[in-house]
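Shipment paperwork, digital attachment
Item: protein structure file
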Amino acid sequence: MEAFDVVGLVETWMQEDEWKEGENLLPKVFKWKKQWAKREKERGRASGGILMGVRDSINEVTRANREGREGALGTIIKSGQVELDIWCIYINGNMNEILGWIAETTGGANGDRKVIIGGDWNARTGIMGNPYIDEWGDQVVRESKDKVVNLGGLTPNA
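Attachment content:
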């Protein structure tokens, strides 16, 4: 992790009261931005949560509106004359909302900086399957139990 200048961790399941313990496990070379996981019900675990670390030596341009949307955490860094608008997102059935909000926040295609978006897109592929190679070298196709396909599971031309 320390080889990178900016890191994003999603689905941390970390709530605010767990931060002190979690902070001790993370590299000290980063300033950490946090979006806490939320508990939907009184019982059970919290879901979501994002941590974004920016290396202390990086020139970070702070803007308050980079933390205003659940499921998206961003920062702007400057390298020479270039500004990078970097986002870590957690998509949970709300991709169009989050990407629309990021487009508004960054100025969209007319913005004056490069935009980088990474994170967990939670593509739902339903019965289309998701082929992967298992630990024994065999190709296995994993299907969703609920058979739902969202835009993350389709190609733009499908």
